[in-house]
From TrEMBL:
Keyword Isomerase: yes
Composition skew (Basic and acidic residues), residue ranges: 162-173
Residues covered by region (Disordered): 153-173
Mannose-6-phosphate isomerase type II C-terminal domain: residues covered: 75-168
Pfam families: MannoseP_isomer
Example GO BP: polysaccharide metabolic process
Name of the protein in question: Mannose-6-phosphate isomerase-like protein (Cupin superfamily)
Keywords: Isomerase
Species per Swiss-Prot/TrEMBL record: Algoriphagus iocasae
GO molecular function: isomerase activity; nucleotidyltransferase activity
Length: 173
């Protein structure tokens, strides 16, 4: 778990710097940092470090040798206090999430009607099936969520265009 003092009064830049420093200290190679998202942003880590990422954040999740050789898109999502990602689902991926720092909520449903928001539990793995509707929601503090994408078709892996937004606070389609 990330034992950082992430408080809601820190600026976005300060939170991202703390997470970047943490990842560097842990020996992770950051491929991309995106602070432009209105809800927070994310860190994309080097795909070649998926085994290390899995051991650090998802040690209890069984992934076969074959799965570990696929593109799993290791990432950390950072959701700002009170912010919400879109109410969304994906055609080409399932996702595995784990709250590793701060606090956050999740809403999920098997249909387009948004389910109730429940607290993510620190260290508890959440599996989101392909097509399952979901939304990450900021609470009173920054939330840091480790994420792995499980692509349903390795020949055509999911990407950011595989987001079907049903509702969005920021008017994105």
């Amino acid at each position: 778990m990330i034992t950082l003092d992430i408080f809601p009064d820190l600026t976005k830049a300060e939170v991202f710097k703390k997470i970047e420093d943490f990842l560097t200290e842990e020996g992770f190679e950051v491929e991309k940092i995106d602070q432009t998202r209105p809800w927070g942003g994310f860190f994309v880590l080097n795909e070649k470090q998926i085994q290390k990422f899995k051991e650090k954040f998802f040690h209890e999740v069984d992934l076969s040798k074959e799965q570990l050789q696929l593109k799993l898109s290791p990432k950390l999502l950072l959701v700002a206090p009170g912010a919400r990602l879109s109410w969304q689902y994906h055609f080409r991926r399932a996702e595995i999430w784990k709250l590793i720092g701060g606090d956050a909520l999740i809403s999920k449903s098997q249909n387009d009607e948004q389910g109730p928001a429940t607290n993510l539990i620190m260290g508890e793995t959440v599996s989101l099936a392909k097509g399952e509707r979901h939304r990450l929601i900021g609470s009173e503090n920054w939330g840091i969520v480790a994420e792995i994408w499980m692509h349903s078709n390795p020949e055509n892996p999911s990407n950011e265009e595989d987001i079907v937004r049903l509702e969005d606070d920021y008017s994105r389609s």
